[in-house]
């Protein structure tokens, strides 16, 4: 995934001053600022973000235990839409996990020496239309593609006949994100974005492999993102998305609907440097199904992640964000750590 920076006005702290630089929103990623009124007029539904790093293992939540929307991406300036023009945000992500947990949050029985790790590079383009508004909101179109995904999974399975080792790797392009028209409203201290994003299976999916670079199915996600500045130095951001998954016709498997909330709390040390905490909450709310029947016990996944971040945004034209998110409270998914490097650049 979505940058939300903006050159907001003259103040003594950099968070609001260089809103426009560092982070994408939507993967995140993710302002027509002029005179943003003094109070919000309405909340809306919105779009969210981009790629997914997925590893196929049918014993964990959703098909393969992954999701089309990259978790933990929209944590900084989530609700701030960039000013008119074109921006490029590149996300470099890495995920590593040594545990796969069951519905009780315990290591899955019969599986040992488990490891999954994946890396991805996802560029995202965001174009905010000049002089075009709808219901008082600016309009943004965004496109994202996981241009490079490298995924690996390995583990041992205990069987009556002894231990069996299984492993799989996959490298290639991942899936795509399209946000045709996201709406952004801006006020003095509060910003919000609403819309719908579409996740497309652009990469290759092989049902015979444990690791895949693509989900293998379509998904749609209405989402709502916000950013609030209670003071000039403090930022509170969040991104809520409801993901509706379609059927994977190669496996006749349909993953359940998912809700995720990316969050961030930041403090501006100087006009260019910001530090804080970030993470995400994830919950699968409907059962997985295969051949029209509930799969297992429904395979409903759950994760809560938190960790630190640091952002450097010396100019409204570019910025860099580093994030680490450690997972806990996990059910029916892998438990590990996510790392992000996000670079945002104004093209014109």
Tally of individual domains: 1
**Cα separation of the termini:** 19 Å
Considering the protein shown, what is the CATH homologous superfamily?
monomeric porin ompg
Mean pLDDT across all amino acids: 84
The total of beta strands comes to 17
Q: Quick one: overall form?
A: globular
| Cα-based radius of gyration, to the nearest Å | 20 Å
CATH fold category name: Porin
Spans with pLDDT under 50 lasting ≥5 residues?
Answer: 1-59
Helix content: under 10%
Main sheet?
12 strands, antiparallel, barrel
> Topology as H/E string?
HEEEEEEEEEEEEEEEEE
Strand content: over 45%
Structural class, judged by helices and strands?
mainly beta
Secondary-structure arrangement, i.e. CATH architecture? Beta Barrel
What would you note in describing this structure?
- The protein is mainly β and 348 residues long.
- It is globular and about 65 Å long.
- The longest helix is centred in the N-terminal third of the chain and has 4 residues, at 14-17.
- It has a single domain (14-346), classed as Beta Barrel (Porin).
- The protein starts with 13 loop residues before the first helix and ends with a strand.
- The strands form 2 sheets. The chain has a 12-stranded antiparallel barrel. The protein has a 3-stranded antiparallel sheet with strand order 10-13-14, with no helix packed on it.
- It is 1% helix and 53% strand.
- It is built from 1 helix and 17 strands.
- β11 and β12 form a beta hairpin.
